[in-house]
Give the backbone structure.
Amino acid sequence: MGSILIPSQKKYLESFLHEDDPLIIEMEKYANEHNIPILLRDSAELLEQLICLVKPKRVLEIGTAIAYSSIRIARNLKKKGIVHTIEKSKDNIVLAKENIAKSGLEGKINLIEGNALEELPRLDKKFDFIFLDADKTDYKRLFDYSLILLKKGGIIFVDNLLWHGLAASSRIPKVKKNSVKIIREFNAAFTSQPNLKTTILPVGDGIGIGIKI
Ligand SMILES: C[S@@+](CC[C@H](N)C(=O)[O-])C[C@H]1O[C@@H](n2cnc3c(N)ncnc32)[C@H](O)[C@@H]1O
């Protein structure tokens, strides 16, 4: 599985990505060394820009992993903003807690431990911004529930819609056939939602952005 950009373009654009926060750099290194999937830097920068633009008070993240994106969201929230983030992996919860403590943003990040399929129905208040980044087999159900929890005018941000280039490829390795089918079906459902204004951007691994209308 490769990049969705040709290598020279990828390298050129990456030369403009700057990050000064040692914790963010340490987390990127850790994720890379331990094979933990986190947002690619360009996608994370887009996410941060949208957070700055929208100034959401309530953000929901589905799929915390080590809290890399949670911290990147939280550091851009205004005074009253908070991100609620859901994670089901016990190992990742331990790492997320450590990183959140190191970031000093404990007051802005509420880590919900559990399976989002069970946790989402327990949430009663709506959200201004939802970031969906969980298991692809759960995507469609989590997306449907997210739409209920998203305020009118709110934004849903979804990662991996190009699925490492495989979503648009005609040559799919046998082991990837099922996940590619899931992503393709998801993309069709995402872009045909009557109450969402959507686009899929060729950023990172393919970012879906939907505005609830
Ligand atoms: C791609 S990683 C999240 C990366 C993170 N958003 C970032 O960019 O830093 C996906 C995470 O979602 C978690 N996850 C997957 N399905 C889930 C579900 N149904 N409920 C809660 N967590 C889930 C996995 O355990 C994994 O840690």
Q: What stands out?
A: The pocket of S-adenosylmethionine is lined by residues 37-39, 63, 65, 68-69, 86-89, 92, 115-117, 133-135, 138 (CB under 6 Å). The chain has eight helices and seven strands.
